[in-house]
Structures
1.
Amino acid sequence: MVDIYVDADACPVKEETIRVAARHGLKTYLVSDGGIRPNQNPLVELVIVAQGADAADDWIADNIQKADICVTNDIVLAARCLDRGALAIKPNGEPFTENAIGMALANRELMRGLRESGEITGGPKPFGKSDRSEFLNRLETTVQVAMRQR
């Protein structure tokens, strides 16, 4: 069975993920350091980890298996999931892939350096309706791919 792991602290598509998972009868783990409401769906498990910068990421990376799915914006977590044979997708629907993860990690470091030097300020564009729609379409496709891999 395919499981879905959500890096839930700042995830804007928790409910959408739960809906898609429920349609396919998939277990979903919402992993957070707190502040997330429990869900009544028996296939949804709320996992509260100790507070810390990487506690949720570590729990997901330690528990995710081949062909499971991770929903995250965190490039390092996505890389760890891909290393375990899992699939990873951003909340805007963009997939993390083996071919692109190295470049994404390098770009992350470059951007961090530019932010620290003050050359770049601000963050990503706001999350919008089109991002949510793209996520729903891409998650459906990702679930189908994962189920074939199992």
2.
Amino acid sequence: MAGTDPYPHHRPNVGIALFNTSGQVWLGRREATPPPWNWQLPQGGIDPGEDPRDAALRELEEETGIPPSKVEFIGEIPGWLAYDYPPDVREDPRFHKKRHLGQKQRWFALRFLGSATDIDLERHGEVEFDAWRWGELGEIPELIIPWKRDVYVEVAHAFKPYTR
């Protein structure tokens, strides 16, 4: 049936692949997360009634300090990409979103128009990342926690044209 949500039990979320003018992608190291799978792209929840593009700009600014005026949309993946939380994550009493089976994500590619001085990981107060670097899009699936990897493989494939 058209219009039916294929992931009704997954939390709505956005993901952002932020590219510099050299075609590299912004990678953040998750704060207080041990290696080896502690690097990822910015992502975060979509508030009720919020447009996914607006959520992408809001989440990018909250997690990186980069204001909307320093980016432009260059692409997106139509529809949702989703992953399930593994049982140990869903059952962890510290895990505040355990009512969801996982996350469904709308992914956007943005071009960074600013400079390194526009990046402030502590701007929002709730620090998501404790370090950042520019990296290659193709390396991200190996940097992400395994249960998110299939989504990152799809993102790397879909956004490969923006690396040129």
3.
Amino acid sequence: MPLRIESLDNSRLKLIRKLAAKKHRDAEGRFIIEGINLLEEAIRKNVQLDLIVMADDFRYDEDRLRLSDIAELCVVSRTIYEKLCDADNGSGILAVAKKNIYTEESIELSCNANVLVLDRVQDPGNIGTMIRTSVAAGYELVVVCKGTADLYSPKVLRATAGMVFHVPVLFTDDAETTAELLRRLGKRICVTVPRGGVPYYERNLSEGIALVIGNEGNGISDELIELSDEKVTIPMMGEIESLNAAVSAAILMYEAVRR
């Protein structure tokens, strides 16, 4: 039987509320998954779950998904649940999950694998869309530079639609260590610039590249641009100065599929 919790003072619920802050997610190595779809995706990809909490009015098919066999299962009132979840009108179920920690030595990439690099990208929707697209386009690794929004925030996780569980992620502290990592992995560093680069369709972006997407307002750091192997531009008509970061990333990542 699930454990019934009646108070927000319960230690399990205190942990969930702590994990709303990035500093506690980093310290604990854990994060919150909200919603049955994300939860099922995490289960499919063998993400370790420590705790599942659901509102007492939440309904699911117990024959299809036996939650009590996966992690400790607790039930709370809808009123308490709404104080735990990030989303307005939360779906009614959330879980405490352990981060998968990857290292350069632990990842296995195919010979010509492509890599997505996020350089200080801030918008959760952009990050989620790019990670989803990277999986769809067959990219095998995401590298996240310091200054990028937290991949384990509820908004980013929802935007990835669970695809963040499908691809390994490595984190780097600065442009130099990022470039060194990518070179050890045997990747050509390809940066996107709004003007002055080679039109992207004149370069082979189908394999063996590390595609760098920069901050929405400031673009890619000067250091990474200097350390890059290729600079490509998406031609634009009229007076438009730039495309949305996720749109640009999708156009360039799908070169791997087109070719």
4.
Amino acid sequence: MYNLEMKLNAKQLRKLDKSKMPMSEIKRSPIFLILDNVLDTYNIGSLFRLADAIAAEKLYICGKSEYPPSSRIHKAAVGTESYVDWEKHDSALEVIKILKDKGTQIISVEQNPKSIDYKMLTKNLVKFPCAIVVGHESNGVSEEVLKESDIIAELPMLGINKSFNVWGSAAVICYKILEFI
């Protein structure tokens, strides 16, 4: 059996026999990740790594995104796609409606006139369980999803670049939210 105290590197993760992992012993965070038409397979793989890193409850791949098995996702995910609970859905909106019906707070990461600076996310504002939504690399989170979001948070862009990488943005928000658990 595998000892959960021991952390694995990329080579070990890619070769690990999942049947030897005591996955039920991992204490899951009350956080879901929703990918709204994220197209870059390396971003998807990196989001699997993030989901594993924060012990997310589940990752939802929505829209026209590629999903496992995929050699490119596997490469970026370093095998974590085998250990993260995930589902494929046609629409992020469909997932959001299901999760909202179960009392899940929806937090989209997007630049929008209604967005707040991520530093304004506080223990009083964030409710669990919550879902973090990230969107398409060029188009962002879809308008229909933003309308259903309870909070829209954005990262300040202090340089000349307009936006931050989708998985990097998700990581900043997820780790901010972990402070409140």
